[in-house]
Amino acid sequence: METSLWDRSADELLTRTASADPTPGGGSVAALTGALGTGLVLMALAVTARRRDLEDAQRSRLADLAARGEALLTRVRAGADQDVADFEALMAAYGRPRDDDEQRAARSAAIRTATVAATRSPLGLAEALADVVDLAAQAEGAVHAGIRSDALAGGDVARGAAWAAIRTADVNLAALERAGADETTELVTRRDAVRRRLETPGTHDPHQQQHQDQRKQGDPA
User: Which spans does this entry mark as compositional bias, Basic and acidic residues (predicted)?
Assistant: First the structure.
């Protein structure tokens, strides 16, 4: 890949996406839009954190959510260029010579390796975006009412991007299933798990789970 997608202007990205060029494809666009959705959640948290009337507990909660959001943004951003790299590796594998049995075997192995990578990456992206959806749901109760819609909009964008990433993974996963690849079961399990999370939002809150566990153990809340 010559240049990171993030180094291109918005107009260049749109023009290239709407062209006959195969990249950026669905996975990259999912990462690009998902990163913007994550940014909306972070903006709502940052604007709220500037208020002077916050209690210490509120400020601490906002900082915790923002730290998680920044970590997620790093993961989601990386997905844009990774999708292009995965596509190029897969095309290179398909372009390998197949003049004899040895070459054909090497080509098949390269295709499988590249296909597995091109499945893992969008699944990882979808998982990160599902975390963003959860983060937006948690931010809803922490941010100022005047900017709450931006946090929720960010979650909506992330949800759509996550489904787009799953579609990208599904294409490659189908190829692995047809080939009987050993990794298929693990990847299907991951795909189904993130699907369930997206269908039941707000159920994967590590902060709330820790709080509940402490209560069960009799620790102070």
Answer: 188-221
What range defines the domain where residue 204 resides? 23-214
* Per-residue pLDDT tens digits for 103-150: 999 999 999 999 999 999 999 999 999 999 999 999 999 999 999 999
Dist CA 36 CA 40 (whole Å): 6
Whole-angstrom Cα distance, residue 26 to residue 130? 17
How far is C-alpha 131 from the geometric centre of its chain's CA atoms? Answer: 8
**CA nearest 165: which of 202, 218, 193, 128?**
128
List for the chain the helix, strand, coil content (%; round to 5).
80, 0, 20
As to burial, measured by CB atoms within 10 angstroms (0-12 exposed, 13-18 middle, 19+ buried), residue 47 is middle
48 falls within a domain:
yes
Name the amino acid, one letter, at 91: M
